[in-house]
Structures are given as C-alpha cells and as structure tokens.
Amino acid sequence: MKTRALLLVLCLAGLATVIWPPEVMSPAQEELIANAPSEGSGAGELLDMSAFEEELIEPEVTAPLVEEVVAQAAEVAATQEVDLVQGSLKGRDQGALALQGELLAHDPGAIEAYLSSSELHPGRERFLGACAHIALEQPEASRALWATVSEEDPISSAERATLGRLLGDGGAVPASAGVGSNALLRGLEMAYMRGELRRVLQERDYVSACGLLSGLLEMELDAEWPTHREALETWAKQLKDAQGFHRWSARGEWASAEYEVRSGDSLVAIRKRVIKDHPGLNICTGLIARANQLRDENSIRPGDKLRVPLDPVHTRVDLSARFLLYYHGEEVVSAWPVTIGKDGRTIPGEYVVGKNKQRNPAWWYQKSGYEPVAADADPHGRGFITNDHPENPLGSRWIPWDGTRGLGYHGTNDEESIGDEASQGCIRLRNRDVEELYDILPVGSAILVQP
Fold it and tell me: Where are the domains of the chain?
C-alpha cells in the first residue's frame, strides 16, 4: 500500500505541473517579451515584470479537476483495500468454518477438493492443508506445510496455537480443549482425537480410549454441523467395548469405596452401609453389581472385595441428535440412540429419575392424547396392556421422571422407530438398551434434556 500511495503522489504532482505552468502570461506580457532587446543589446538589463503581476490568470477551472482525480485515486485505493480484507476473510465466516470442521472431523480426504474450489487466501489454504494432514495422520507433511505460513497470513491466534500444540506434543488432547466457538478447531481437535484413539486402542490403553470416546461423543453433539449419527453409533459401540476394561471392571481406574463382604450381606445392605459412610452418594445395587462384573445381585460371598463407584451418575438427552449419554462424573460411560416425542412433545429441561421404576410394566392408555391399541381389558373396564402383551409400547422397562405427567425412559415394541420423532413425549430405547440403563441408573439421578 505504501508503494501505491507513493505512485499516486508522483502522478498527481505531474498532473499539477501540466495544469499549473510555473508562469502563465497575458497577451500584453507576451508582446513585451517579444519586443525585448536581444542578448547584448542592453548589457546586464533584466526585464521588470512587476507591472504585469496583477494580470496573471488564476487556474479557476483546474481545481475541480484535481479534486476529481484525487477522489478517483482514493476510491481505487479503498477498493483495493476492501478486496484485500475480503480476500483474507473469505472462508472464515461461521458457515465456512463449520463446513471445514465437519470435513476435518469426518472426511479429511475431501479437503483438497474443497480448497481447489474455494479460492481462499494462499496462507489460509496452507493452514487448512496442514490441518488436513493432521486429520490424515501425516504429522511430518503437516509440519512442513505449516512452516510456510507467515505471521501476516489471515490465521487467528487460537488457530495458530491449536495447530502448533497438536504438532508440538504427542499427548492426548483433553475433550473440548480450547475450541471455543471456532467450528474448524472443533473438527481439528476431533480429527486428532480419532488418530489418538486408534493408537491407544492398539496399545490397549482403555482408560485413555474411554476418555477420547467420551470427548468425541460430546463434541459431536455440541458441533455446529448436522450430527453424524453413524459416527455416534460407531463411537458408542467402541465405548461399550472399552468400558468393559475400565468402568465396568473391578480393576479399572475409577473413584471407589472398597468393601469386604460379610457373612449374611446382600447388595442392599452393602449399599446402605456405603451410603452411611459417604453421605449424599447416589448408588443402586445394579450399578454395584455391574461395576464388579457380578453375574447377578446375589452372587457375592463372604470375603469378596467389592468396589462401589463414587462418581455421581447422570444422563443427558440430545433431542436434535436423538441420542442418550450416561455419565459417571464427567465421563460418558454408555451411549444409545433413542426415539423422542413427536411435534416437540419432549420438553428440554432438567429432570430427576423417579422412584417407581418397573420391570415389564403394564401400560395404561389415557383417553386424552393417546390412541388406544388392541389391548386386554382389566375386570374394571379400564384400558391397559399387560406387561407381556406384544403391543405394549413401554417395552420391557419403565424409568419415570419425577414430577412429570407420565414422562420417562422406556423400551418399545417398535424398535424400527428408534432415532425418530414418534413418542408421546417419553424417550424410547431399544429393549436391550433400556434394560441396561434400568440396572445402572439410580433413583434421584439428574437428567438433562437439551434441544
């Protein structure tokens, strides 16, 4: 810009010289000069022009012309500045960042085609290329391309710091670390985590694997792009397998209270004793059995050493993704696809698991809001479906939400509906999934339902 400005000044100076000559003379002055003595006719005599100074022509017409030229030059310079700024901003709006993040997280091989069609700033292209190499697990290629990016290139400090960190250390990235509102950085972090996941699974480091899978599930649900349900289901399956060596293993690394089984003990009695020693702990016998890999709640013997989980249990339902996450503390332990209420009948908010959990529940249809289906009738003429009826829409388990009018987690007689908006407001799970949730979700556990 400094060079363009200098050229503009020089051009204006030349124009001014043409418009305003050093001396503009009247006809009388020209005649006087024509009749002036030639050299040598009057040695040393100089022409006195003072008498004619008032007759100089003022350049009244030329001033507006110069102003117009200056204005045009300024407009050109301003346009060039705008073009430069727009070029540096192209590909950095929220929509573009979301697409770039989605490609990095789920389809990094498509980055090259995206760059060839986007006409981004060259420095921005190199940055995205370096990110793609990270996603493709090619750190050396990423490092080489990143070295060509200059400080003047349109890359934010957060983007520089994130890519530099991922190239500078080989440690696992904490879930949701530093992504802020930048969807591209979310995708880059997720891409890196996928590579780390592959590595730690090969090394059978299941603690790290569970942490990475927990982070991937959460970050996908919170992402700015449309949810990739296939990825969620893949990660949920991997998490289930990995947790068999972590949260669902007595040898796993998780916060616990140890208890040695006494003669005459039951899991109910053990639960009460542990809660007495840990006031506020919310635990159920099914969770103790699952954490210790017991065949059932009665398969304990005196002298057995049990571990009772201490991390608070809670669940999260994401309505847009139609997915349920089950937590111990801040770590996702299990995840399942679900069916949500049709026509917005599942209301976002905070709920609590109620007391009346039921195995093989009977279903009572309500005359307002529910259509009766083929059902058995009780002796009093009230419509309901028995717990073993094939058309019972509650499936094999019922987990109520306290303080609501009939909302809860339950199974289904129509597993094809999982993933749809089809219920009257409840959250449906496949029967095998709700049976697992029923066993490990204590009464009083927090439930978060988000849009």
Answer: 94-242, 256-309, 330-441
